[in-house]
């Protein structure tokens, strides 16, 4: 498995064995502070983007990590330290994270707070739950919550299309999900319409795929949903900007001497 130093610390779930046979340089940077590797990430304690550096040397003899160890990683902007508890395989360059603080979810949950204008609190919590489950090695459960977010977006578009008379309830109810997405395309982001297979993959994960397969695809599907939300967020920001401009222009036009 090829990972960057940042991906190992901030993205890899605990209890996931990571082998670095084809990426020994990264293995050494993770375990050896003398490699002076700096990597970018989010500091969830201080809610800032920052640069991090490894402080711990667990490879004093240039060999493999044997047994348990603790890696300290420092945020260079605040000097605060995060801790990662790892288990090494003495027969090769394999590391398993057995614990960490903050959690993988902590590093990423802040990223979804930008969608609070688009998702009600219960759906935002479900998105958070999906990330937390995946971070702790629960793949199928994480898919359940991602699918609920997807279904919420479809339900919103359905309500808009019904209100505008673009479709009928009977049309919608007789359609499969891919057909529903086509029917609702006027009120759905282009990325969702073009990548409607996201839903079938989520459903397959819940009913047929195993935990490891779901985990392997979680980030891809999560990013897909975030792109959909990003499109909606951009549209919302544009509308807000237009409304603000209209208001200011109206105020300007109402001033004496502007008639």
Explain the overall architecture:
The protein has 259 residues and is α+β, with helices and mostly antiparallel strands. It has ten helices and six strands, in the order αβαβββββαααααααα. The protein has a six-stranded antiparallel beta sheet. Helix 5 crosses helix 9 and helix 9 runs antiparallel to helix 10. The chain is flat and about 75 Å long.
Give descriptors for this structure.
259 residues, alpha+beta, six-stranded antiparallel beta sheet
Largest sheet: 6 strands, antiparallel
Global mean pLDDT: 89
Secondary structure tally: strands: 6
Query: What value does the Rg take, in angstroms?
Result: 23 Å
- Secondary structure category: alpha+beta
Counting H and I runs of at least 4 residues, what is the number of helices? 10
- The termini sit apart by 69 Å
**Largest beta sheet: strand ordering:** 1-6-5-4-3-2
Which strand-content bin applies to the residues? 15-25%
What overall form do the CA principal axes indicate?
Answer: flat
Q: Spans with pLDDT under 50 lasting ≥5 residues? A: none
The H/E string reads HEHEEEEEHHHHHHHH
Helix content: 40-55%
């Amino acid at each position: 498995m090829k990972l960057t130093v940042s991906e190992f610390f901030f993205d890899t779930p605990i209890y996931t064995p990571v082998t670095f046979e084809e990426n020994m340089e990264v293995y050494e940077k993770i375990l050896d502070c003398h490699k002076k590797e700096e990597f970018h990430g989010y500091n969830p304690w201080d809610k800032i983007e920052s640069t991090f550096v490894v402080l711990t040397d667990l490879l004093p003899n240039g060999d493999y990590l044997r047994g348990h160890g603790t890696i300290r990683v420092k945020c260079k902007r605040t000097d605060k330290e995060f801790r990662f508890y790892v288990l090494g395989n003495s027969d090769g360059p394999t590391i398993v994270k057995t614990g960490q603080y903050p959690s993988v979810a902590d590093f990423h949950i802040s990223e979804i707070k930008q969608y609070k204008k688009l998702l009600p609190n219960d759906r935002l919590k479900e998105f958070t739950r999906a990330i937390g489950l995946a971070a702790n090695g629960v793949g199928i459960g994480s898919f359940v919550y991602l699918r609920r977010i997807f279904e919420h977006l479809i339900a919103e578009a359905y309500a808009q299309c019904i209100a505008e008379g673009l479709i009928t309830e009977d049309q919608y109810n007789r359609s499969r999900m891919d057909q529903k997405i086509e029917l609702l395309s006027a009120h759905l982001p282009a990325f969702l319409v073009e990548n409607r297979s996201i839903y079938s993959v989520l459903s397959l994960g819940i009913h047929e795929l195993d935990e490891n397969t779901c985990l392997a695809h979680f980030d891809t599907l999560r990013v897909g949903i975030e792109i959909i939300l990003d499109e909606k967020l951009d549209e919302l920001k544009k509308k807000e900007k237009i409304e603000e401009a209209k208001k200011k222009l109206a105020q300007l036009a109402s001033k004496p001497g502007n008639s």
